[in-house]
Design a protein that fits this description.
Keywords: Signal
Protein name: TRAP-type C4-dicarboxylate transport system, periplasmic component
Pfam families: DctP (PF03480)
GO biological process, one term: transmembrane transport
InterPro entries: DctP_fam, TRAP_DctP_sf
Number of helices: 4
Order of helices and strands: HHHH
Structural class: mainly alpha
Strand content: under 5%
């Protein structure tokens, strides 16, 4: 993860901006895939050590946060993220 100011980023040559966008996006995707792949093992370790995992109705949470996305003007971004993650919005 890289955190930088927009002004600094805007001063970079266009080709560097594209490299940063692509490479950091690819890295984030790969890290997410690693976490997904390790989830079952992590859950087993946690339950073996006494944790109770409770499955919740995620649709309730998705509906509850929709107004926040609308207020921030991020509805399209939310839909894009869900699409890329393979989750129904």
């Amino acid at each position: 993860m890289v955190i930088c100011g927009q002004a600094w980023f805007d001063k970079l040559p266009a080709e560097y901006q594209e490299v940063m966008k692509k490479d950091f996006s690819d890295c984030a995707y790969n890290n997410a895939q690693d976490i997904i792949a390790a989830q079952a093992d992590m859950e087993k370790i946690l339950t073996d050590n006494g944790m109770t995992i409770v499955e919740v109705d995620k649709d309730i949470f998705r509906e509850a946060v929709k107004p926040a996305y609308e207020k921030l003007g991020w509805t399209e971004l939310r839909e894009q993220l869900y699409k890329e993650a393979g989750v129904e919005a």
